[in-house]
């Protein structure tokens, strides 16, 4: 099976918060079952951009986009697209681990339960599979009924990843998933991302240059709402074309 | 005196002043409580709680009054909870931030400050006259529901607001609808807070006499209400009635009834404090 080189695409994408022009004419195509990293200084629009792929910006008053976002060639902002269906396909992991104040089990199966799945066997199986995929099963298998809030930050984040995997998406968006964690937990998340890209298309926003270098296949550099440069990660980090990219990745600003 | 000495003196001075201010309130309350307890506590016995009102102070009891108060509490709760909580959820989760919603918000806050007797007049016109209910329990409960509704709405919103944005994001990102997010995440996480606010609102309603007198609640009700359509009295009205009598024995009765009313209020507040405490222990964001 050949990989799709345009699993996710943005075509002439502009985004606005009221009068503020947050994203300017962005064109990008992201490869299937690979990791694409978004880097850039704070406020450059990379998180906003990430959130357009599962329409998490919809709830923000005054937010609107022009242009297209395509998932498998379909415009996800079309009228007949149902947002809940879209989010089954495009999962998300946030910057700060945000487990629900419920048991570990309830956290993982939440996405399935709200789809109306009640069969205990299906739920339990999905719970185990997802926790294993997220490399946290061994740590929590004996306390699935304990509160998720009792886990450490790193474990909580892996639980949140398991929760996203449980609904079997094909794309996972990660918004600085390791920035609130200690170095060891952070390394575990990176390892996990590396494992997951066999089966999932991953888009990750990160502030950490080394992290982008380690985990991603492609890197996109954003600056002031523009996509400045998009290339294979190795190419970008060894020979950036744009001076702004060069200055940013060598740490001269940001 | 050096500057730093002056500053330290000022610091000390304010501390003393602050302690003084704190104690003024407490001391006044303590004197009031002690006075009431000395006057009334000996009067409280089983007969006092289970006797009907009477023209003779020694035989009069507060059965109808506390039964009425209980009825009013339960009915107001049943009416005001769903309305207030639903309104709070709408304003916090659904309403767009427009000029209209701003206007609504400010006015709900204003309503919480309207004197209770105004609500009584509203209840008199709306429930007693236009809806032709008369001075019955249901009319009283509806009136008090209006009175506590703004408080319930405001506290519901505060409790909902305390649920972090990230929890909603997490739920939405898994494909949940707004209602599913509210029902499965926001409400369970804020329920303790909502309940606390609602109970505090009820404890305010328990102490109200004025609006109920206005709608025509009676001071002398010789039977225990059996349905929301019965006439009624409540503890504050009974107390008000007894304190306006010349005989000393009735004042003793009033003091005893005040103790019972205070116990009910403290009990409600105690439950609220307990719920808040439990909630804080259970959920640490």
Give an overview in words:
The complex is a heterodimer of chains A (254) and B (285). In chain A, 35% of the residues lie in helices and 25% in strands. Chain A has 254 residues and is an alpha/beta fold. Chain A has a single domain, classed as Rossmann fold, CATH 3.40.50. The longest helix of chain A is centred in the middle third of the chain and has 14 residues. Chain A is globular. With 285 residues, chain B is an all-alpha fold. Chain B folds into two domains: 41 residues; 237 residues, Orthogonal Bundle (MetI-like fold). Helices cover 76% and strands 0% of the residues of chain B. In chain B, α1 crosses α11 and α8 packs antiparallel against α11. The longest helix of chain B has 38 residues. Chain B is globular, with a radius of gyration of 23 Å. Chain B starts with a helix and ends with a helix. At the A-B interface, α2 and α6 of A face α7 and α8 of B.
Summarize the structure.
Chain A is of the alpha/beta class and 254 residues long. Chain A has ten helices and ten strands.
CATH superfamily of the largest domain in chain B: MetI-like
CATH superfamily of chain A: P-loop containing nucleotide triphosphate hydrolases
Coarse morphology of chain A: globular
Give the SSE order of chain B as H and E letters.
Answer: HHHHHHHHHHH
- In this structure, how is the largest beta sheet of chain B organized? none
Q: What is the CATH topology descriptor of the largest domain in chain B?
A: MetI-like fold
Q: pLDDT below 50 for ≥5 consecutive residues: which ranges of chain B?
A: none
Count of discrete domains of chain B: 2
Q: What structural class is derived from the secondary structure elements of chain A?
A: alpha/beta
Write the H/E string of chain A, N to C: EEEHEEHEHHHHEHEHEEHH
Number of domains of chain A: 1
CATH domain class of the largest domain in chain B: Mainly Alpha
User: Quaternary status of these chains?
Assistant: heterodimer
**Low-pLDDT sequence parts of chain A:** none
